[in-house]
Design goal:
Elements (H helix, E strand, L loop, with lengths): L2 H13 L1 H7 L4 H9 L7 H10 L4 H6 L11 H11 L5
Helix pairs in contact: 1-4
Length: 90
Amino acid sequence: MSILNDRVRSIASIAGMDRLVRETPIGSNRWRTVLYNKDVRISTDEVEELGKLFPSYRWWMISGEVAPEIGQTSPAYDEANRSLAAPSAG
């Protein structure tokens, strides 16, 4: 399995099944297969639809790299920034 597949599945998990089915033309059976069958090949259809749902993750999804200066981040990058911005108890 490729690292790209892992990134696609990560973003699909963030979206959740309800949103994926509601906001993309791809059916629930295919999304379920993509999410839970690690042997299945990801198609360009899933990549394109996830890119539409999460435009700021497009570059990371394809390349594994972030470019925050042009608004291209990753889920981990965004989470780290949220943690840094949160006031610490102390």
